[in-house]
Amino acid sequence: MSMALFFILLILFLAISLPIGGTFTLLSVIPSLLNQNFSFGVSDVARAMFAGLNSFTLLAVPMFMVSGMIMVKGGISQKLFNFFGYFIGNKTAGFPCAVVVTCMFYAAISGSSPATVSAVGAMTIPFLVSMGYDKIFATSIVTVAGGLGVIIPPSISYIVYASAANCSPSKLFIAGIIPGILIGVALMIYCYIYCKKHGEDKTKLKESYTKLHEIGLPKLFKDSFFALLTPFIILGTIYSGICSPTEAAVISVFYGLFVCLFVYKSIKFGDIAPVVVEGTKTYVNILFVIAAATAFAKILTLLRYPQIISQSVLTLSDNRYVVLLIMNIVMLVCGMFIDNIPNIMILTPIMVPVATAIGVDPIHFGIIMTCNLAIGMITPPMGINLFVASGMTKIPVLRLARAVVPFLVTFLISLGFITNIPGISMGLVSALSKETTKTVATTPTLEADADLYGANIKPLNPNALSTEYHWRAAMTVADSSINYKMLAEFAHLMDIKSGGRIKIDLYPNGQLGNEFTEAVLSGSIEIGTGMTTNLVDYIPQYAIFDIPNLFDDVTQMRTVLSGDFSKVLNHYCNAGGIQMLGYSDAGFRQLTTNKEVHTLSDLQGQKIRVMTDKYHIAYWNALGAAATPMQFTEVFMGLQQGTIDGEENPYMNIVGNNMQEVQKYIVETNHIGHVIIFFMNYDLYNSLPSDVRRLVDECAAAATAYGNAKADASIKQYKQTCIDAGAQIITLEPSVIDEIRKKGIIVQEMVRSDLGDEIVDQLMDAINKTRAK
Fold this sequence. Notes:
single chain, alpha/beta, D-Maltodextrin-Binding Protein, domain 2, 2 domains, 10-stranded mixed β-sheet, 10 strands, 8% strand
């Protein structure tokens, strides 16, 4: 399906007012209906939609929505405005600037632009008009300043972007603070210029200012204290490491209820149910859009449109500033026609690869995208803030749109600074994360020797192949990982040994979703690579590798995985619908911590982040630690803020995510082998001609050996990177390892109970045979 036709259909469906969720869903199924060879069918689209909602990060969205609605219902905007007006009401443009500051604070409370416009505008627009300000000017201030609701954290847009781009919502929240303040200050500067030019009714302003001073600062502060405290409660719990953004969202709901019910007494218990119902109705609509947009984004990736667009943009220019200008223009135009959430879901998979290609951090780009889309909220034809403000004041939308142009120019100037000066977004992130420099280990290159691994593979006669093959290989890890290097070598060898008749496209970084294992099982994707945990839900026997302290060293692990036991596992794989092509590894998983560990007693009570896996949780609890499941994107921030004491990962992940920057010690527990699996759809494998199957097996074996060589070379450099960063590597005494092994036997008993004794005994026999030799 041509890209031009695809996007023409997108524009057409939107033009005829087809609901955005329906548009995305329809466009997700059309490619398979028009092309029978396109393997991602209707059932795969349904699975992708479900997987798009299976996100811990997105749980924060309904909580923040309900929290914002509670605050709106509670009427706290008046208290905030009076407090700020007390300090600056007697200055030139004092009250208009107080409106901007109120919008900034209210945005941090509600996380919603329309809610900010509605709540702040309903109270401040009549007040400004009564003070002699032009009604259109007063409305324009709230309309534009309300757009800060998606920029100043917490922001629902940041949460959705974090889910789509697989980055930390906490870092996005931090990154959005200074840009939000910068835009707010810029708007206040324009208010000052406007009031200087058009004048103010000083008499009326003085009367209002005097009334506030008659009330007195203590009374105003008392009235506004809990409202002022709200953003500090929400953001403070996140940045201090007390909780994650999702948990903070829950806190914001209960804090909002407490303040509005018992402090301000502005709502009653009977008001709670309607607020929750309203929030649920709004969230359901967003939920369907997110689900449909997830499938839509995956279809874009499978059709390789993001790669085509990325290459096209970079062909026009490789200049960072030119590329960013082009992307800003595209995002501004999209923001004019499509709402924030679907825009984020559409643009993120297309534009983030372009941004990273020119050296823009995904966190920084998330702020750029959000600022662009915030501008879209105040521009016709879809600018929702315009419609909300117009509905309150009865000013025609187009007239209001013309009036906000000067504010819009101010916003655009601020956007230019935010786009081209990364420190505005990333400075606070670096300061709070202690990341003055980004330490990234360069993996030793073995590409010069890549062909040597396939030197003994007999090539196919390309003329003898009756068909050409084009396969896709998916993974959730980055293109710097061992998985990717191994698959890249496999693709390279298959290409050259088939005379170019077998092509394999690689999709790292979760481009095809986290549920790629199910996609390989169904045949919509041909090849996958990941950890053994990726298979456990489908082939339970792979839980065998969750038994801790199985292997004495890497050599022993590789011997077992390349021996007869691999045939035992492949029997289960074939029954489950896949053909295991090989096993590589990234060495062993290690413990990183900020507390020195030499014995088991040193580990007692430490909060260790683990995967959400019952065996891992049981293991660390058995050792006396407090096993703490946590979303991986939140781990770095959790370590830096002290929410957790440590985590466990192979050196590849430790250095790849800069854990050594916030961890003092790396304890070589070698507790679990980080086994990398490499598999293909079984029906596809069986359908291949025998000579092609032979080539697949031989190239997979060569690629696995290459992956292991890459791992060995990388681990040495990763260790040095940790040492250079100031981390101390601790090697445990054999007696301590034995003690850990004994404590961990509980996990083996759990696995035996779940899988039976036979497969565990087969694995232990294979291990014991290597020891006998």
